[in-house]
Amino acid sequence: MVHDPKGKRTRWLPMLKFFGALALPVLILGSAIAVAEWAETEPSAIELARKPISPR
Q1: Residue 1: CA atoms inside 13 Å, Cβ hemisphere, count?
Q2: How confident is the model over 26-41, as pLDDT tens digits?
Q3: What is the pLDDT of residue 21?
Q4: Nearest to 23 by CA among 34, 31, 35, 12
Q5: Dihedral angle at the C-alpha atoms of 46, 47, 49, 52, nearest 10 degrees?
Q6: What is the pLDDT of residue 13?
Q7: Is the pLDDT of residue 1 over 60?
Q8: pTM higher than 0.70, yes or no?
Q9: How far apart are CA 19 and CA 45, in angstroms?
Q10: How far are the Cα atoms of 3, 7, 24, 48, 54 from residue 11, in angstroms, in the given order?
Q11: 3-class SS string, the chain
Q12: Please, how many CA atoms are within 13 Å of residue 45, restricted to the half-sphere of its CB?
């Protein structure tokens, strides 16, 4: 059996495209989850404006 280094190199490009195609939705989903969690922890400006200031 003859070693074919060129054939090995040509397999990397489709594999790289495949993993890139998998990674992109994961990054988008992770970003959406992070934004949703960040939005829940921060009170909005409307909520802050509706709360009365407590007297000291």
Answers
A1: 3
A2: 999 999 998 888 877 6
A3: 92
A4: 31
A5: 160
A6: 82
A7: no
A8: no
A9: 41
A10: 14, 7, 20, 56, 67
A11: CCCCHHHHHHHHHHHHHHHHHHHHHHHHHHHHHHHHHHHHHCCCHHHHHHCCCCCC
A12: 0
Between CA 50 and CA 45 the distance in angstroms is: 9
- How many residues does the structure list for the chain? 56
Written as six digits, the tokens of 27 are 């990054």
Single-letter residue type at 22 = L
Residue 51's alpha-carbon distances to 3, 44, 46, 48, in angstroms, are 73, 11, 9, 6
Enter the tokens of residue 15: 């594999």
- Per domain, the residue ranges of the chain are 5-50
